[in-house]
Write a structure and sequence with these properties.
Length: 185
């Protein structure tokens, strides 16, 4: 139960690390035997590497010569197709791991609070949460289904949008595929 009259502050998501996107993509290609269609790789900025024209997030591409692994358009469509198919085809989402520190003042009400949680000033609690994209997708769908608009849900949804490919993989509902469109028009 929430304390009456107590102001509930948003959850802060700090020190986020995501890994396993490249491994999950390999699983997808093994499942579909589509290695020849892969267009992902190292982004070296501009047309070096895979090139911004092949980048799945080219509308907001910000990989300027940082040499990080990025998904190409065809590989993103492959992953979204597997999500849309559901079931065991979407199991690759379990391979994308996330570790994040949550800072909250929810005290006893925090369902992710552990005995080993670190105490911070002003009664705040810091917990390291280890999860994966499949669990985040389920939690995101539950929040959307219930129309949860409390400050914790809002801060969670904002954090999801900030994750690498969070919009494209976690928030993806499949409407574009049902309408016969690709994700890029």
């Amino acid at each position: 139960m929430m304390e009456i009259g107590r102001e509930v502050k948003p959850v802060e998501f700090i020190n986020t690390d995501v890994w396993g996107i490249e491994h999950a993509l390999r699983w997808c290609h093994n499942l579909q035997n589509t290695w020849a269609r892969s267009d992902s790789g190292l982004c070296k900025g501009g047309d070096d590497g895979i090139g911004c024209v092949h980048c799945a997030i080219r509308q907001r591409c910000s990989h300027f010569y940082n040499r990080e692994f990025v998904l190409g358009i065809r590989d993103m469509e492959l992953m979204q197709g597997l999500i849309w198919a559901g079931g065991e085809k979407a199991e690759f989402l379990r391979m994308i791991h996330v570790a994040v520190d949550l800072v909250t003042d929810m005290g006893k009400e925090a369902e992710w609070k552990k005995d080993a949680a670190g105490k911070m000033g002003d009664g705040a609690v810091c917990v390291t949460w280890d999860t994966n994209y499949a669990k985040l997708r389920e939690l995101y769908k539950q929040i959307r289904k219930h129309g949860d608009r409390n400050v914790q849900a809002v801060s969670f949804k904002r954090w999801i949008k900030a994750l690498p490919y969070g919009r494209e993989l976690i928030e993806y509902e499949g409407e574009e595929r049902r309408n016969g469109e690709t994700m890029n028009g």
